[in-house]
Amino acid sequence: MKTIKLLPFLLLVFLLSCKDDEEQTASLELEFTHQAGTEPFNYEQLYTTEAGNSFSLKLWRTYISKIVLTAKDGSVYEVPESYHLIEPLNDSKFNLILSDIPSAEYTDISFYIGVANEANYSEEIVGDLDPSNNMAWNWTTGYKFIRMDGEFTDASGSRRGVIVHIGTEANLKFQEFTLTESLILGSESAKIAFTVDLLEAFKNPNTIDFEVENDFQFNNEADLIGENYAEGYIKPKR
Fold it and tell me: 141 pLDDT band (50/70/90 cuts)?
């Protein structure tokens, strides 16, 4: 009789023990604010490049992929199927919610600008890798990593098109950031804020002049833009 009464108590202890062993997770929000230098970005608004070109955009999209978080103890967590298409939507922002991130104290975050190699040529649709997003070249050559469609005013005062469609493995750019303050992810959600600077794509180290070239697809000039967005294009807010 005593044994029978003890069973519910042992079962409760067992269940509580199992609950303690479960890994605690939380959501992490990545917020991307799109800018043109120090100005907020808006479609159809005129901005000036380092070369002095006055231009505007009607479409601006960027793929990021393979998001990895590094904890203070050196352990890493790679977010599964993390292929995300970011663009200026609400007040020039794009908010990406990552679910089920293991609780830890994180010090670094990394990702690629572009679609990491193994997924770039796959027909499997994961994350935002969907041809209906109009970011695929075709199934044999992969995805456009950055797409900008717009116009600039040339020296004669005429409006001409600007096409910036950057892809290929050479332009897959790894980004790694040490957070200014450790991100302690517990039972509650947290946020890391980034800026995406349009003008950085057209300067440093290469000054891009639309008078010289205004169609950037599978050419040397496209690779120059790839070199530019490797650093400074996306960065954490301070």
Answer: low
